[in-house]
Amino acid sequence: MTVVIAAINGKGGAGKTTALMNIAGEYALRGGSVAMIDMDARNNLMKWWTDCQEKDAQPEGIEVYSHKTARGFERWMEGNAATFDHVLIDTPGEDTSLVDPVILAADLVISPIQASKREVMGAIDSFESMLRVNETRGRKCRHGVLRTRITVTVRHTELYRKVRPIIEDKVGTYLFRTEVFERNVYKDIHNGIGTLQMQEVTEAIAKARRETQALVEEVDALLAGTAVAGHAA
Ligand SMILES: Nc1ncnc2c1ncn2[C@@H]1O[C@H](COP(=O)(O)OP(=O)(O)OP(=O)(O)O)[C@@H](O)[C@H]1O
Ligand SMILES: [Mg+2]
């Protein structure tokens, strides 16, 4: 069965594209076939892909497609999704008209956040959209909030401490235990040098790789229904 994962947060710059690149790289490394769909008019993902091609650094096992309309996306899904193990959908930070069709196709929605109020609000909006689509269309899509660009400073903020009680207790969705730290390599991969998993393993890369492996394990557990909110250390 094809697993469909979408990154959605209506507030731009939260780390959607980066998270999907890393997850795609991990699945590809495990030998899976991955399709990534760039639905963002700014084409960040597609640009990364063509840059990778120019630098002869296109990852094996990953294909990137571009669809900017719900129609085009739905047609592609109907005709092609089944031929891939994973379909990862990158959505724009603003255009909300694409949210429902993407959720309708997804098994899991990941909403990345940095520790800012507007991004937490954006993640909550995405969760509520998912609940509405699940309810009206009889779907069982899951949702998780992913903290990204974490630094020591961020960890000392009040909002950071409040994120878990807000997301898991008040809102009632899942907060990934894995946090994505602020790391240069996550910026560097945007320059068309392939995926994180293709980089020569230095100490810094090894840390990013471990973080990504933990994230993907959690993604798989969430999809399998074995990850439960509030039950981790
Ligand atoms: N964990 C991280 N560490 C360092 N830099 C990061 C990290 N995550 C994202 N970035 C950087 O932050 C910027 C925004 O990230 P990204 O493009 O993934 O967000 P996005 O949610 O896709 O944004 P948009 O809504 O604009 O598409 C990029 O320049 C990226 O390199
Ligand atoms: Mg993006």
Present the secondary structure layout:
Blueprint (H helix, E strand, L loop, with lengths): L2 E5 L8 H14 L4 E5 L5 H11 L7 E5 L3 H11 L5 E5 L8 H7 L2 E6 L3 H21 L4 E6 L4 H4 L2 H14 L2 E2 L8 H5 L14 H22 L9
Parallel strand pairs: 1-4, 1-5, 2-3, 2-4, 5-6, 6-7
Helix pairs in contact: 1-9, 4-5
This protein binds adenosine-5'-triphosphate and magnesium ion.
The site of adenosine-5'-triphosphate has 18 residues, from helix 1 and helix 8.
Would you mind describing this structure in some detail?
This protein has 233 residues and is of the alpha/beta class. It has one domain: Rossmann fold (3-Layer(aba) Sandwich), CATH 3.40.50.300. 47% of the residues lie in helices and 15% in strands. The chain contains nine helices and seven strands, in the order βαβαβαβαβαβααβαα. Strands 3-2-4-1-5-6-7 form a seven-stranded parallel beta sheet, with helices on both faces. α1 packs across α9. It is globular and about 45 Å long. The relative contact order is 0.19. The model has no long low-confidence stretch (mean pLDDT 95). It binds adenosine-5'-triphosphate (ATP) and magnesium ion. The site of adenosine-5'-triphosphate (ATP) has 18 residues, from α1 and α8. This is Chromosome partitioning protein. Keywords: Plasmid. It comes from Aquibium oceanicum. InterPro entries: DNA_Partitioning_ATPase, P-loop_NTPase, VirC1.
